[in-house]
Amino acid sequence: MSEYQQMIFVNLAVNDVAASKKFFTELGYTINPQFTTDDTACVVISDTIIAMLLSKSRYADFTKKEIADSTKTSEVLICLSAESRAKVDELVDGALAAGGTEPREAQDYGQMYGRAFDDLDGHTWEVMWMDPAAVQG
Hints:
The protein is α/β, with parallel strands linked by helices and 137 residues long. The chain has helices at 17-26, 56-59, 85-97; strands at residues 8-14, 30-31, 40-44, 49-55, 77-81, 107-108, 112-118, 124-130.
């Protein structure tokens, strides 16, 4: 019997679905075509993490609230773990090469290291590594 693994689906409003698909595939993520249309892109981050990139008109189908301009307003901080300091740098450097920006300097606390990038629409993605020896179970 397999153990159920809860998933997270992060839904983000984007200005240009095609450009956002290109950005995330340049970071090494895949697009699940089963849940991708002209108005949506299903980005597979891991087996349990999916980013749903929705055109603003499609995103509006799910909320009556005003959609934030994520280049001016922070609506969410998404943090992804990385298996090493080098993987943190690899992902953030890849995001910068694909057109993202770096909103702050790296944070190095010895046993914990992190950087961040803003995607094409200004959503902030933090990437952090924590020394497994420093984590108490």
